[in-house]
């Protein structure tokens, strides 16, 4: 999640919070690893102390996962707006000026076979074409250059280089050449993220179920060890 360009671009508007959240996930993973070691050692050595620690660690993780899942479900409707705002901002403000965003968006356009946010016309009002977006008057269609360029990654696969260069120069309000992708990247990105959400939700349910079984078994084992000690 820290290296996937699609996810990074989708969350570019909340980059600091997103990175912080990923590091929290990594910390939780280490906590689960520690809990697993405690449970394994506690079972082998029949140590009630380790089993109780295992139970406490996994109970904390389980509660945190349920809370995170509830938060994500309640805020799922905000995801589309966040993705659209992030893609629009990258096209209009960052492409061609921020190298990491440029490489990322090129990869998205090439892999998803799309161009711009809503379509190739988005590039007409982009800083990529030297449009000063700080001046609202200059962004008006009447003040735009009648011709604008789009990135090379908007060209379809197996298109000759010279044909791509010709197709990259478009006229404001004009028809698009078939040599370039004519659909935007916003809807495709949202579709991919929604598909991944379903996979993540399914895996999370399986993990939570296994954790509940682990908690139950640790309690049963702890009680069994306690009974054995009383008998001894």
Unreliable spans: 136-142
- Broad structural category: mainly alpha
Average pLDDT, to the nearest integer?
A: 80
The profile of the biggest β sheet is: 2 strands, antiparallel
Radius of gyration: 26 Å
How large is the share of residues in beta strands?
under 5%
Could you give the count of β-strands?
Answer: 2
Helical content band: 55-70%
Order of helices and strands: HHHHHEHEH
Strand order of the biggest β-sheet: 1-2
- The total count of helices amounts to 7
Any idea what the shape is?
rod-shaped
Separation of the first and last Cα atoms = 52 Å
Keywords:
232 residues, mainly alpha, two-stranded antiparallel sheet, 7 helices, 2 strands
Task: Please provide a written account of the structure.
The chain is mainly alpha-helical and 232 residues long. Helices cover 64% and strands 3% of the residues. The protein has a two-stranded antiparallel sheet with strand order 1-2.
How is this fold's topology laid out?
Layout lengths: L4 H6 L4 H31 L2 H27 L3 H17 L4 H14 L34 E3 L11 H7 L1 E3 L14 H46 L1
Antiparallel strand pairs: 1-2
Helix pairs in contact: 2-3, 3-7, 4-7
What can be said about this structure in brief?
By secondary structure, the chain is mostly helical. The chain has seven helices and two strands; from the N terminus they run αααααβαβα. The protein is rod-shaped and about 85 Å long.
């Amino acid at each position: 999640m820290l290296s996937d360009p699609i996810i990074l671009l989708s969350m570019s508007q909340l980059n600091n919070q997103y990175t912080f959240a990923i590091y929290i996930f990594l910390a939780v993973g280490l906590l689960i690893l520690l809990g697993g070691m405690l449970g394994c050692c506690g079972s082998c050595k029949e140590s009630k102390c380790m089993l109780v620690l295992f139970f406490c660690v996994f109970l904390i993780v389980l509660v945190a996962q349920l809370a995170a899942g509830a938060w994500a479900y309640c805020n799922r409707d905000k995801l589309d707006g966040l993705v659209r705002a992030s893609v629009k901002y990258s096209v209009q403000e960052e492409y061609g000026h921020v190298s990491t965003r440029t490489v990322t968006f090129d990869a998205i356009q090439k892999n998803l076979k799309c161009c711009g946010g809503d379509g190739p016309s988005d590039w007409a009002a982009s800083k990529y074409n030297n449009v000063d977006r700080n001046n609202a008057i200059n962004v008006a269609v009447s003040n735009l250059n009648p011709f604008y360029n789009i990135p090379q990654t908007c060209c379809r696969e197996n298109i000759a280089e010279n044909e791509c260069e010709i197709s990259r120069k478009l006229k404001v309000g004009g028809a698009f050449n078939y040599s370039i992708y004519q659909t935007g990247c916003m809807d495709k990105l949202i579709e991919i993220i929604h598909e991944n959400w379903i996979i993540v939700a399914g895996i999370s349910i399986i993990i939570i179920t296994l954790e509940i079984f682990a908690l139950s078994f640790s309690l049963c084992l702890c009680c069994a060890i306690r009974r054995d000690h009383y008998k001894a």
